[in-house]
Amino acid sequence: MDHKKTIFSGMRPTGKMHIGHYLGALRNWVRLQNEYHCIFGVVDWHALTTSFENTDGLEQNIIDMVLDWLSVGIDPEQCTMMIQSQVPEHAELHLLFSMITPVGWVERNPVLKQQLQDMGLKEVVGYGHLGYPVLMAADILIYKAIRVPVGEDQVPHIEITREIARRFNYLYDKVFPEPEALLTETPRILGVDGRKMSKSLDNTIGLSEPRDKVKKKIMGMFTDPEKIRKNDPGHPERCNVYTFHGVAGNPRVKEIEADCRSGVLGCVECKKELTTFMIQYLDSITPFREQYQGKEELAREILYEGSRKARQLAESTLGEARTAMKLTYQL
Ligand code: AMP
Ligand code: TRP
Predict the structure, then answer these.
(1) Do 120 and 152 share a domain, yes or no?
(2) 230 near 267, Cβ under 8 Å?
(3) Does residue 203 lie within any of the structural domains?
(4) What is the DSSP string of 117-131?
(5) Co-location of 111 and 219 in the same domain
């Protein structure tokens, strides 16, 4: 483990995972676990930045999320899965970083602007929400991670992390690496309604979703609005059903494109075919689904042990940060 470089990524505990999570981030997590020392965090404090009022479902969401991580093949023998709030060193490093972060960096943050737009809000929810990327920088840098596998929407956040690392190293001492975002070939997946796939928009296809529900969602998808009758010529480039054929690995994707354009293939037929492939695809990307189904206790143990390990690493880096800032006096 010592000779391997470290990777960190995290997800807010929003519950069950969808194919956007998988295609944008999780599949890179699976790929990277042999090559790197991977730490994957349940960032529960980040979940509070926008929804702090009702925290009832948080614990169950953590378990559901981690069971889905395990189902796609995140291997607890190879990587560390931890809970942010169980490693309070993240909070102290966040505080130190908040001192050196100019307000403009967080105010200009494009992710925040997009989020406000998506949530229909005029201004940031609170102080913690504004500091979202500063906490994220602490999550990553406390493990000195050099890469951060995430979806495209997170790239500006990683840029702020790099800037904070650079500024800390310049002001005090060279403690932190400047980590890079690592994207998949599909860094942004759209949902069944054509907007970004997201739990809050209720447009997801879940990894462990009952297959009859998957069918229902696909059959209800919008297609090219100009293809009204079955034999009208369609425009696959404007149709998310077509994109999903590619995502689900349908080998007939080229024929589908041609048949849609010529009008031979109707949308209902096309969606039926997609349903078959999507269900096969979901089964193929969750090879451990049955093995971990309902294993809530196991998930808890994995997180407990992972958080304990992560804490040791985090303590060590925090010590270096305190030393660099000359905060080691004992009075
Ligand atoms: P979130 O649920 O927003 O905390 O996202 C967790 C991770 O999944 C982040 O790395 C996101 O960038 C990624 N992600 C979430 N939704 C999508 C999507 N629709 N397409 C691609 N990546 C996504
Ligand atoms: N902001 C990320 C998201 O919404 C979650 C996150 C928090 C994260 N801390 C992180 C991702 C550190 C990668 C690294 O998906």
Answers:
(1) yes
(2) yes
(3) no
(4) HHHT-SS-S-HHHHT
(5) no
Residues with Cβ within 8 Å of residue 67, at least 6 apart in sequence: 208, 292, 293, 295, 296, 299
Closest ligand 1 atom, CA of 21? Answer: 8
Structure tokens at 187: 């860094």
Question: Is ligand 2 within 6 A of the CB of residue 137?
Answer: no
pLDDT computed for residue 3 by the predictor:
67
Range of the domain at 281: 209-285
Q: Which residues of 272-298 are buried (b: 16+ CB within 10 A; e: fewer)?
A: ebbbebbbebbeebbeebeebeeeeeb
In residues, how long is the chain? 331
Q: Average pLDDT of the chain?
A: 94
* Atom 6 (ligand 1) nearest CA: 11
| pLDDT tens-digit map of 110-154 | 988 888 888 888 888 899 999 999 999 999 999 999 999 999 999
178/218 same-domain check: no
Ligand 1 centroid to Cα of residue 24, in Å, is: 6
Would you say residue 56 has pLDDT above 60?
yes
